[in-house]
Structures are given as structure tokens and as C-alpha cells.
Predict the structure.
Amino acid sequence: MTTLSCLFLRASSFTTCKALYPFQFINRLNNGGLFSSSRDESSKSTLPAHADGECIERSYPNFQLLQFPCLNCNYGYIIHDMKTGETAAIDTPDASRYVAELEKREWKLTHIFNTHHHLDHAGCNLQLKEESYHRYSQKFPMEQSVAGAGVVGDIAKIFGPKIDGHSIPGLDVPLAFPDTDTYTDTDNDRHDSSSTFLEFGNMQVHVMDVGGHTKGHVAFYFPMDKVVFVGDALFALGCGKMFEGTSTQYWESLKRLRNLPDDTVVYCAHEITERNAEFALSVEPGNLDLIVRVHDIKMRRKRGEPTVPSLMGEEKDTNPFLRGDVSEEIRRNVGAFDEDSFDVVFGKIRAAKDNFQV
């Protein structure tokens, strides 16, 4: 997501967090609940992206998750390990909203996970880090540094891609990747990507190399809970613009994400799916799964409901940026040739989206 396209603060009150319990969440996914969202990654919607400003709370086996609107079309995320008390911000688009949600629950921020360096993702790092000290220094005693923990005293640590380190404010822990895969597939590790690992609470988080939108973009995958935070690398029915990477790099990144299990819950950073849906239909109008999903998207937006998260399985079936190697219809409609490699096909899909007009 470009910085300027979403740096418009939405004036909304901090509402009470609405709980969404696991059985409700599963039902919403299954009952036509093909989560998606609204608008192109580079343009503003004619309607507000966030209809009510509500915070939604979900419970996973190993953490609680808060999802709340920020700016014009961003989503903010906070995760909290109930056993250890560790709490992480996934990107930092709006410090005031994060602080408000943390204070309601008396959670102490211990980690900041940045997916990439754009200001609507890392711009409030230092403010939140400062708040993590000043707002809790009197309530919580100073702690000794614990091996593997994300906190020294009361100061949250900032994790982000090493390659973007010069552009990520306050980066404490640069995340780099091995040249080759050093792990094997298991039930809890079913993906094929460059990956490194970090500890959060009692969990091992897989940090995936998903560069393309920016060179150093990463995703945070929680295999025990089958949840992935993808930033702007992947959207519901879309992907971020290719600002810094190459089509080869970006296609490899999207294949890594696509290799995650179908029931992986995908949290992207923006509510922009309606516009993505229009483009997807323009390049694959014969995809019946897509037609059904787009109808559900429109109904959700009319009701003012978020269309994020989605499931990786539905992205595989309907997201044109994941389908250039499986859909002849898409290849034909973006002008790809039989001899084009699939990274070239992806580049043509991305270019078609960049130039798409309703």
C-alpha cells in the first residue's frame, strides 16, 4: 500500500471491542463467508472502508487477536499470549488506536512486528515503543531480560526485515533469511519458502520472505494456530503494487504464501477488496468460485462488515495473482503468450491491475 493513499485519519470513537468466538468465526467462514474487502491498493473508495470503527476480538488456541480499523483503510492488529502476557503489535499505522486498545485490557506491549517499511506500517514504531515504557513503567516493575523474550525492562522491541532496516524506525531485531531451506514439511510446517524464526510467548513464529511490494517485505506465520499476517504482500483478491521488487521475486513470494495450508487464516493490512474484485472478474469472468465470492463481498460491504480475514484456500481459488499458472483465461485476458514464464505472466497481471479502469 502506498503511504499517501491511506494516510487520512478516520475520525471515530474507540468503541468497545466486540468479541467473535471461535464457533462464530468458523460459521462465518463456512456460511458463504468468503471474506474479502474493497478498493484498489492505490485508490480511495467512494465509501468509507470502515463503516463502524469497531474492534473485533478473536480467540485462537495460543493467543487472542484484536482487529481494528486505522487511518482510511488500514487494519491494526494486536496479539496477546494469555499464558505469558506477551503482547505484539503487527505493524503500527496509528499509535493512538493501539494505545487505546491496549489500555482497555491493561496489556503491556512487548513486541512490534513490522512487515515492511512503509509509513502506514512502521510510522508509529517509536511512539508506541515510548508509550510501552511511559504508560506501564509505574504499573509493572522493571524486569530482567529473559532469553528469547521481546522485552527488556518495559521497552517493546521492534522486529522487521533486515534489508529494510535503514527505513524502519527503531528497528531492534533485524530479520534475515538463510539462502536455502533448512527444514522439512510436517503437519505444522507445511510451506516452502525462505524462512527464519522468532519466539513469541510459547510459540515459534515463522518469518517468511515475501519481498516484491518492497524488497524486504516479510509475513508472520503462526503454524500452531494456522494464522498468517501478510501486510501488503497479499490482499483479499489482490496483492500490493510492485514498488521495489521484481516480478520474479514477487511471484516466488506469492507461491510461498500459496503453499500454506488451505485453512490458513490470512490477515492482510487493508480493506480494499471490492475494487480488487472488479479487476479479478475482468480477467477471469468464467470462474464460478470467484462469482460467488464477489457476491458475498458486496453483501458484506453493504452491511458494513469487514472482509478481512480470508482463507488461503479461497485465495488460491479466486485471487488472480495466485492463478497465473493455473488459469488459461487469466493468461489470455492479460495478453500473455504461451512461451511466457509464469513470473512474466504475473508481471502482466500486475501491470493490468495497475492500469485497470472501471
Observations:
- DSSP finds eleven helices and 15 strands in the chain.
